[in-house]
Amino acid sequence: MSENEPLRNEKLTPVQLNAIYLERIGKEQRHQRLHTEFSINPHKRLHVLTDKPMSRKPTELIEEDSAFIEAFHKARLEPTKKYSTPLTESQEIGWVSDPLIPSHCQDQRFNFHRASTDVTRHTESALRKYN
């Protein structure tokens, strides 16, 4: 132990306590950073609560911040519209989701419309009789 450190059994004097306090405050101020920038967390939804219906308080007029609104809309976009290439391997699957074959409504291979057969017609008529 050095000469400047008090023994653990000794009580600290007010001068020593003040020196410890000043050292601690100086250390906190060196490491403290003030954050003034606000940004939206894109992973959380932003919920705006309205006033109560019977409230007599006048609504506040707030200036529209175009940068904030643009950042809000950009955060809500799909990943393919936000980025030019996929950022993760899981995004690579399905990144290019354009159909390989152009779809036509008349193409029977890809469109399975509801059709009635003799079995379905018989079942429908039987159900109508009992209802």
UniProtKB/TrEMBL annotation:
InterPro entries: CFAP144 (IPR029214). One of its GO terms (cellular component) is cytoskeleton. It is found in: Cell projection, Cilium; Cytoplasm, Cytoskeleton. Pfam families: FAM183 (PF14886). Keywords: Cell projection, Cytoplasm, Cytoskeleton. Belongs to the CFAP144 family. This is Family with sequence similarity 183 member A. It comes from Pleuronectes platessa.
